[in-house]
Amino acid sequence: MGARGRHARDGHRGRPGRRRSQAMSERIAGRYVLLRRLGAGGMGEVFLARDLTTGTECALKRLKPGSALPASELTRREFEAVTRLRHPAVVAVHELGFSSDGVPYYTMEYVPGVPSDRALARGDWAALFFVAAQVAHGLEALHAAGVIHGDLKPSNLLVLPGAEPGDRPLGVRLLDFGLAAVLGRDERSHRGTPGYAAPETVRGERPSHASDLYGLGATLFALAASRPAFEADDLSSLLRRQQSGPPPAQPLEEAGTPAALTQLVLRMMAPDPAHRPRDAREVRLELERMHPAARRPLAERLRSVVVVGREKELARLEHWARAGENRARVMVVSGDAGAGKSALLGELASRAALDGRRVARLACGAFSARGGAALALLRRWAAEAGADVAALATLDPATRAAIAGADGALAETELSALADAAADWTRPADADAGAAAPLVLLDDSEGLDPFSRAFIRRLVMHPKAATLRWVMARRGTEGGGAHDDEAV
């Protein structure tokens, strides 16, 4: 059945869809009219809605009554950090609000796609490689922004089908990324979906970049083999099998999965996070080496993005970021709210990632605890470097534990030692050969707490971090645009 048939079934076109839309006219917050129910999950229900203020359609997710969502300023700032994410493989999230009965909801772009386990034909390896590479690229963007997806599975990958049966998919969207933790739920209680959640998160550990890679591996296993990686008669047996080791390769081999992809999937599903690929970028690069369908289309779309009114600033930032050690280490982007600073940083992050540069991006306003932004950077860099944090004798045990992922704070007396460690972790191993050092993008940098600001100042001036580049976006109109700034 062609595209028209699909649309008629899901209610976009055809009389059945119109009758259902007319029958459903509930209004949320006086602004959104619910047209029809799209689906339901563990957190709540999703509806197609019309925004009466713009006349456009969107997807509205209404959480279950009684959802633990504190209407605090912190929660809203954290959610706003998620809404700044813009990437072709990540669904755009728009607004958080409450209906008249106090039930929380959020809105996002409506994507008329198909869940990946229904969209991909068995044995269509070109389509699978295309989807896998796009999802890996989307995870790169999420992780660079400090967001963990936390629940990767086939139903959370929405595939935009081609115009005709057999055509390569037009794209992919990652759904429900990181929102369980942001929307007031204890991060440690979010276990994900059995069979797809990493063993360490099932045991109660904090979700991480590595646990997202496990979820992607489990998703690719299911899509390639047309069955889950682990099957059992009951949940307890399923979790025990998952904890005991990686899944067997036989289902993948019987499905004709390319050997290189089989090995990558099994590595991603290693029970020990240290045995998985280092990050989503490594996964994407391996996929691109395996199959031509994994290469270029997403990159071409990323490079075609137009940052309206900021083209000169973007060109200047790209040129500056590629410069050697003699250039200023910090660039500040200033402007009024809504001037496009976040979009500028997002495009710079995408282009830098395509050039092979490691990027860390933070929304500084999302951190309320002392040293929160500094701790987020240290955790990321330690993980990327594969550092043995426990062996750092220069740091006290509580600080080492905090960087390793435990609850806690950084000791204020250890700024110099923390800067030394960060400089070692971020310095490229082949720096003498001209390898690019990481790029650090700080959105809402005026929201940095004093401790994080002092840590960054130490690191900016550190002799071993001379190639590290910092871009700080902040409100303010002194001169506007992008300019060098020696004083952090």
TrEMBL record:
Pfam families: AAA_16, Pkinase. Residues 1-24 are annotated as: Disordered. PROSITE patterns: PROTEIN_KINASE_ATP, PROTEIN_KINASE_DOM, PROTEIN_KINASE_ST. SUPFAM superfamilies: P-loop containing nucleoside triphosphate hydrolases (SSF52540), Protein kinase-like (PK-like) (SSF56112). InterPro entries: AAA_16, Kinase-like_dom_sf, P-loop_NTPase, Prot_kinase_dom, Protein_kinase_ATP_BS, Ser/Thr_kinase_AS. ATP binds at residue 61. Keywords: ATP-binding, Kinase, Nucleotide-binding, Transferase. Residues 32-294 form the Protein kinase domain. Residues 1-21 have a biased composition (Basic residues). GO terms for molecular function: ATP binding; protein serine/threonine kinase activity. This is Serine/threonine-protein kinase PknK. The lineage of its organism: Bacteria, Candidatus Eiseniibacteriota.
